[in-house]
Structure formats: C-alpha cells, structure tokens
Amino acid sequence: MRVTMILPALTEATGPARRPVKYALFPPLGLATLAGYLDPDDEIDLYDEHVEPLDLAAMLGARPDLVVIQPYITSARRAYQLADMFRAHGSYVVLGGLHVTSLPDEAALHADSIFLGPGEDTWPLFLKEFRDGHPRPRYTSTLRTLEALPPIRRDLIKRHHYLVPNSLVVSRGCPHHCDFCYKDAFFEGGKSFYVQAVDDALAEIDRLPGRHLYFLDDHLLGNRRFAEALFAGMRGMGRVWQAAGTVQSVLQPGLLERARDAGLRSLFVGFESVNSPNLPDTRKTQNVGRDYSAVVRRLHDCGVMVNGSFVFGLDHDGPDVFARTVEWAVGAGVETATFHILTPYPGTGQFRRMEAAGRIRHRDWDLYDTRHVVYDPVGLTPGQLENGYWRAYRDFYTWRNIGRSAATHAHPRERLRHLAYAGGWKKLEPAWDALIRYGRVLDALPLLERTLTAFGRHRPNTAADAGTSIPADHERPAAGAVPRSPQGGFAASGAAPD
Ligand code: B12
Ligand code: SF4
To answer: Where is the Radical SAM core domain positioned along the sequence (predicted)?
Structure first.
C-alpha cells in the first residue's frame, strides 16, 4: 500500500517573510507514531510542510492509496484544501487529531474517514478494516493505553530540518481540567491522563541518538510515581532535556531535584497571568495561591532555565497588563517568555461560554493563532490587546531587559548563559532563517546542548540540592506581590520560546 502522511503548515511558516525558528523545532511526532502501525512493506512518505515545500503535482500524480493528514486549528484550512485535492485524484483521505475531534462535522466534509480522540485504539482497527475493504466514516477512541505501542517510525523524519529532532511523549493528557484547554474535549469518553510503562519510555529514550531530548508531554511531572521512576532510570544516561510542568509541580519538594539529576535543564512553565482574579475564572484552581517568584527561584537554584508562558486578554486584564507582566518576568530572571493573546479553541468550555455570550468575533481558524484577537475582550479594546502583545515581546527581548534579567543570577557563568540563550532565540533571527532555508538547522544543536549542559552544572550547598525545601532568595530582586499562577494549555501550545 502507498501511504502519504502530511502535517500541513499554517501560512506564517511558508510565507516569503522570515520564518520563526519555532516551526523548525519539532518533527511530526504524531504522524511518525501512526506510521509505526503500518506494515513494513507499505511505502510511506511523510511530509512536514513547515520545513519543506510540497511538490503537489508529483504527490497527487503518485495517487497514494491512503492519505493521512493531521490538522491543527491554524492549519485546518490548508489541511482541508489538501484533503480535497487528494480525494479529487482518487486517494482515500483520513483526518484526525485535536481540531478534527473538536469539530468533527466540519472535518468530515473533507475526509473519507475521521478520527476522534487519540488514535492508539482506532487507528489499527481502521487499518485492518481499510485493507479488508470496509472502512467506516468515523472512528471514536474509547480505549486509552500506551502499552505495547509499535516503535515510532523515526526513520521517516528528515532530521536535518529540525533543531530538536529528539522530541518524545511518554504520557498523554494531564491530570487537570482547565477551562480553556484542548484536553477535556480531545480525551472525552475515556481516560484523560495516562502514562507509558517506564521501561518502554526508557527504551525509547535509548533509541534516540545524541544527548538532547525534548519531552512534549503536557505535564511531564503530573504523575509523581511515574516521573520519579523515569528520572531514576534516566540518571547516568548523560542526557540533557527540556519539558513542561506546572507551577504546582515545581514547588513539590524533591521532584525537581530528581528531574535535574536526570538531565532537566529548562522547563516550560505556564505563569499565564499576573492578575490573580483571572485564575478561578479559568478553573486554574490547582495553582491558585502559588508564589510565582518562588517557582523561578527554585528552578534557578536547581540549575533549570525557565521558559515562562503568559496569556493576555483574560477578563480581569486592563491596559497595564503588558508592562506589569514584562516587568515581573524580567525582575524575576525568567530566561525566555512566550506571550499569547487569549484564544478560545472550539470544543473548550471557554469557547462555549464566549459563544453563548456573543463574544466570538469570527470563525476564521487561520487567525486562531494566539497572535490575533478573535473574541470581544472585556477590559481592553482589540487594538490595545494586539498592540500590547507585540509590545510585550519587543520589551521583554530588548538587550537592556535581557541584561537586567541575566543580572538576577548569582553567578557570572549563569548570567552569561542567560544572555546567550535569550539572545540566541530572539536576536539571531536572520541566522535562524538562513539555517532553516538551507536545511541546516540541526547544525545548531551542539550549541544548544552546550548551553543547556553548562547551565545545569551541579551546584552543591543550595537548599534546592537538599531536595526538601524551597530555597531562600540569594541576590535576586524581590518580585513584589505578583500573583500566583497556572500551567496552561497556552503554555503547552508553544512548547518552546516563541
Ligand atoms: C510540539 C507542539 C507544537 C510545535 C510543533 C508541532 C509539530 N511539529 O507537530 C510548534 C512549536 C511548531 C507548535 C506551534 C503551534 N501550536 Co502547538 N503544540 C505542540 C504540542 C506541545 C505537542 C504536539 C505533539 O507532538 N504531541 C504528541 C503527538 C504524539 O500527539 P499528536 O500530535 O496529538 O498526535 C496523536 C493524536 O492527536 C492522533 N492523531 C493526530 N493526527 C491524526 C490523524 C489521524 C488520521 C489519526 C487516526 C490520528 C491522529 O494520533 C497521534 C498519535 O497518538 C501540542 C500539545 C499537545 N499535548 O499535543 C501543542 C498544540 C498542538 N499546539 C497548539 C497550538 C494552538 C499551536 C500554535 C497556534 C501556537 C502559537 N501561538 O503559535 C502554533 C501553530 C501550529 C501550526 N503549525 O498550525 C494547540 C492546538 C490547538 C488545536 N485545537 O489545534 C496545542 C494542542 C496546544 C494547546 N494546548 O493548546 N506546536
Ligand atoms: S491547561 Fe495545562 S494544566 Fe490545564 S488541563 Fe490543560 S494541560 Fe493540564
């Protein structure tokens, strides 16, 4: 059987303008996972439009038997366009993933079969039924397990296109239920948080070349027993890695130290809002009352860099939210920041509430990219919100503020590392663009590995190393009465600094 798999791109990733490095970070892991279920003698082509232009004439002309497309909300329009073209040329087209699960009737107009929820149970069933000649139009996942997964077909990934080819997930979902998150809609009808067997996860890690790993799990620290066993197994493997975790989990005594000892060097943390009344509104109850500044201090004392995620436009935000957020993040010494304009995703409680209140402005999914205002905000005009969002990026990444933020570290080596890491993301955009265009972005990986390795050098005699308590402040500025924050779907959405 001839199979074509496509991760379509959103416009920004393919346009003539400079390409943000974020689109050349991670390979299409979901599709490579699904490819693992295909037979060894199936002919599979896997395309990621974020990093390679599609030669559509050749692809359509090859008339694949099966075309598998994964739309995100921002690439749904493009995904449907491709699906329609392949169907018109006689291929059988299937669509699945998060956006399809949120809006199945919309997706069904462009596919022969659609898949709701994770694919581990329905995908192999479909393949059997497809080969037998009687596939169904709709498959809904109910059985949730990561047991006995076939190996991910990483051989199909063109590694040289990615800065972080070694991305992996060892769990699915998250134990929390935030109102704006994709998660509850996607996992409806079954478990919404489950983990791999630790031995399987370690075996997958062992298969990955080089040193660097990026865990794309929504919340790698969400199941403590699993996380501790995983980190124990990873100790001594010589890996350096990055991941996402909640504010709450960072503050748990002992867990972060184990992660650090296993190679954690940078954590994506959803600080989301400097206005604490926003938290209960969005059902971020698990993080209400936590101290943001203590989170940053604790991560730094463990030798872990912070990628902070913030969302603007929640109902308690006014025009001052941008400057206050940047000021807090810089003062706390956050290395990199990802800012988002609040975006209600279809399928979430937040979308339903806003729709009922008549606050959804349009359904142009291309603009649901967290850079555009797609709803009516309460305390800001849409113009203030968009301008403030861009200003926050500019202000956070001025050399002056990068320098101020770096100066919060106690040790000169860490200050230098901070400057290199933050400056590297935002100040070297032309260099990233060139590496991406020439397909050489992987060449920058050793530099990333060196930066991460040096940052996490073990520093004994801090309270954090004792693994029992939140360390005392050293030379950092007091961050003031900053609210306490959540991890979030917005946090998870970026995965890397934007
Ligand atoms: C890594 C990541 C990225 C990376 C790269 C994505 C890539 N190369 O795959 C980057 C940084 C580029 C990125 C960018 C963005 N992202 Co993003 N990203 C993620 C993240 C953290 C992990 C994705 C992943 O690899 N998961 C692991 C794999 C194994 O799972 P999977 O891809 O979902 O695939 C499984 C199932 O969905 C299913 N499946 C998927 N497709 C199909 C198809 C068929 C036929 C079948 C049967 C099954 C099936 O089976 C797969 C195997 O189990 C997710 C969060 C998450 N937990 O998924 C957000 C997430 C996907 N991103 C999101 C968003 C919003 C964005 C951005 C708009 C954010 C922004 N402000 O820029 C952009 C634009 C994305 C785009 N190109 O359109 C949202 C999507 C919301 C939605 N409803 O679509 C998510 C869910 C985060 C969130 N919580 O809101 N992202
Ligand atoms: S927003 Fe984050 S913490 Fe909340 S449910 Fe989603 S993944 Fe979990």
So the answer is: 160-378
Compute, in angstroms, the gap from residue 287 CA to the centroid of ligand 1: 24
For 15, 181, 391, 402, 405, the CA distances from 340, given in Å and listed in that order, are 21, 14, 12, 20, 21
Percent of the chain at pLDDT exceeding 70: 88
Distance 73 CA to ligand 1 centre (A): 9
Q: Does the CB atom of residue 373 touch ligand 1 within 6 A?
A: no
Q: Whose CA is nearest to atom 2 of ligand 2?
A: 488
Domains assigned to the chain: 2-140 (3.40.50.280), 158-466 (3.20.20.70)
Cβ–ligand 1 contact at 29 (below 6 Å):
yes
Give the mutation target among 183, 278, 279 for probing the ligand 2 site: most ligand atoms within 8 A of CB. Answer: 183
116-120, 192-196, 428-432: range with lowest mean pLDDT: 428-432
**Would you state the pLDDT for residue 455?**
60
In the numeric block, the tokens 């979902």 are attached to 173
Q: pLDDT tens digit string along 162-220?
A: 989 999 999 999 999 888 899 999 999 899 999 999 999 999 999 999 999 999 999 99
Listed in sequence order, the residues at least 6 apart from 273 whose beta carbon sits closer than 8 Å to its beta carbon are 279, 310, 311, 314, 316, 317, 321, 483, 485, 486
Is it the case that residue 360 has pLDDT exceeding 60? Answer: yes
**Rg of the chain taking only CA atoms, in angstroms:** 22
Six-digit token string for 64: 């694949």
Arithmetic mean of pLDDT, 14-35: 84
The three-point CA angle 397-480-289 to 5° equals: 105
Residue that the structure tokens 């956006």 belong to: 99
SS3 452: helix
Q: Is 107 in the pocket of ligand 1 (CB under 6 A)?
A: no
Shortest-distance atom of ligand 1 to CA 50: 77
| pLDDT of 19 higher than 70 | no
Helices (H), 361-481: 382-396, 399-406, 412-427, 429-437, 445-455, 463-466
CA of 468 to the centre of ligand 2 (A): 26
Confidence of residue 482 (pLDDT cuts 50, 70, 90): very low
Contacts of 107 (CB under 8 A, 6+ apart): 71, 76, 80, 95, 99, 100, 114
